[in-house]
C-alpha cells in the first residue's frame, strides 16, 4: 500500500507542475493525516492552516491520481476564496454554506476528475443555478430550496439533495403516517413496504460516522417499524375473515420487512462536501 504522506506530496507536486499559481497557498500549510474527518479538509489548528487528509478515503476511495489531485485542488481553492473565514455562524446555516462554497470551487477544478460525490451545479437541476456566481448567491438559492422543502414536510432535514438520507427518512415517515383506522389491509401493507424501501434507500446514502446521516437512518427505521406494526395490527384484526394461506403469506411478508429494517446500517460513501461547523473535526475544517 502506498505511503499516505508520499502520495499527498506526489499529488500536490502533480498539481503544481500544471498550475504553479497555487504554490504560494500551499507553501506554509501543515499536512495532517487524521481520522477526525471522513475525507479531506482545510482548517485552522492554533495559528496554522492545516490540510487534513483521511488515509482510507485518499488511498482507497480515490482510486486515480486525477481524483486525488482534484481533492487537493478543491481544498486549495477553499483557501484561495477564504471560505474558512467567511462563514458567519450567526447568519449562515453551516451545511448550506458548505454546499454553496463547494458550488463555487468545483467549477474551477479543470481537467482533474472530481469524485462522483462532488457537489456541483448538476446536483440541484431544478434550481437553475448559474455558473460563475458568488458563494452568497448560491447560498441564497440553496436557502430558498431548504425553506420550501421544510414547509412541505415537518420531518424533512436538508441533506444535500432530494435523494439524501434526510429526504428518505421524510418519505418513510409519510408512508407510516398514511396508515390510519380507515386504511385497508392491502393499503397498510403497501405503505409498510414503501416505508421499508425508503429506510433501505436511507441506509444506502447514510455515511457511517456522520451524525446527521445516522440520525436520519434511525428516524427512517423508526418510521418503517411503526408502519409495519400498524400493518401487523390490521392483519390480526382481519385474521378471522382470511383463509390461512393468505394470512400466513401476509404475516411472513411483514415479518421479513421487520427483520430487513432492523438489520439496516449506514452504507454510504463519504460525500465530497465541506463542513465548517463539524465540532468533532478540526476548527474551521472544510470536509470534502
**Percent of residues in helices:** 40-55%
Please, how many helices? 11
Query: What percentage of amino acids are in beta strands?
Result: 5-15%
Radius of gyration: 23 Å
Read across the widest sheet, the strand sequence of neighbours is 1-3-2
Intertermini distance:
23 Å
Q: How many strands?
A: 3
Categorize the overall geometry: elongated
Order of helices and strands: HHEEEHHHHHHHHH
Low-confidence stretches: 154-163, 275-288
Structural class estimated from helices and strands: mainly alpha
Number of domains: 2
| Average pLDDT | 85
Major sheet details: 3 strands, mixed
Domain Putative metallopeptidase: 10-235
Biased composition (Basic and acidic residues): 218-262
Organism: marine metagenome
InterPro entries: Put_metallopeptidase_dom (IPR025154)
Task: Provide structural commentary.
- The protein has 288 residues and is mainly alpha-helical.
- It has 2 domains: 1-155 and 272-288, no CATH class; 165-262.
- 54% of the residues lie in helices and 6% in strands.
- The protein has 11 helices and 3 strands.
- A 3-stranded mixed β-sheet has the order 1-3-2.
- A hairpin with a 2-residue loop joins strand 2 and strand 3 (48-53).
- It is elongated and about 80 Å long.
- The model is unreliable at 154-163 and 275-288 (pLDDT under 50).
- InterPro entries: Put_metallopeptidase_dom (IPR025154).
- Residues 218-262 have a biased composition (Basic and acidic residues).
- Residues 10-235 form the Putative metallopeptidase domain.
- This is Putative metallopeptidase domain-containing protein.
- It holds the Pfam family DUF2201_N.
Amino acid at each position: 500500500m502506498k505511503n499516505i504522506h508520499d502520495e499527498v506530496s506526489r499529488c500536490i507536486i502533480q498539481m503544481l507542475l500544471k498550475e504553479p499559481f497555487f504554490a504560494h497557498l500551499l507553501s506554509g500549510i501543515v499536512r495532517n493525516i487524521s481520522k477526525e474527518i471522513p475525507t479531506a479538509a482545510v482548517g485552522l489548528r492554533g495559528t496554522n492552516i492545516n490540510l487534513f487528509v483521511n488515509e482510507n478515503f485518499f488511498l482507497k476511495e480515490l482510486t486515480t491520481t486525477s481524483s486525488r489531485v482534484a481533492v487537493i485542488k478543491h481544498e486549495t481553492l477553499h483557501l484561495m476564496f477564504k471560505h474558512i473565514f467567511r462563514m458567519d455562524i450567526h447568519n449562515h446555516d453551516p451545511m448550506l454554506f458548505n454546499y454553496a462554497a463547494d458550488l463555487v470551487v468545483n467549477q474551477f477544478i479543470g481537467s482533474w476528475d472530481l469524485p462522483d460525490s462532488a457537489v456541483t451545479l448538476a446536483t440541484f437541476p431544478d434550481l437553475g443555478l448559474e455558473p460563475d456566481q458568488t458563494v452568497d448567491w448560491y447560498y441564497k438559492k440553496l436557502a430558498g430550496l431548504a425553506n420550501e422543502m421544510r414547509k412541505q414536510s415537518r420531518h424533512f432535514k436538508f441533506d444535500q439533495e432530494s435523494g439524501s438520507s434526510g429526504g428518505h427518512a421524510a418519505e418513510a415517515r409519510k408512508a407510516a403516517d398514511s396508515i390510519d383506522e380507515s386504511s385497508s389491509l392491502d393499503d397498510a401493507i403497501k405503505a409498510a413496504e414503501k416505508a421499508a424501501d425508503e429506510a433501505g434507500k436511507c441506509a444506502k446514502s447514510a455515511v457511517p460516522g456522520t451524525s446527521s446521516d445516522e440520525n436520519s437512518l434511525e428516524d427512517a427505521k423508526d418510521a418503517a417499524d411503526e408502519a409495519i406494526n400498524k400493518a401487523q395490527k390490521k392483519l390480526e384484526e382481519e385474521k378471522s375473515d382470511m383463509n390461512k394461506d393468505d394470512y400466513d403469506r401476509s404475516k411472513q411478508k411483514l415479518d421479513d420487512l421487520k427483520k430487513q429494517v432492523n438489520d439496516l446500517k449506514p452504507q454510504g460513501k463519504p460525500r465530497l462536501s465541506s463542513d465548517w461547523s463539524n465540532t468533532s473535526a478540526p476548527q474551521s475544517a472544510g470536509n470534502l
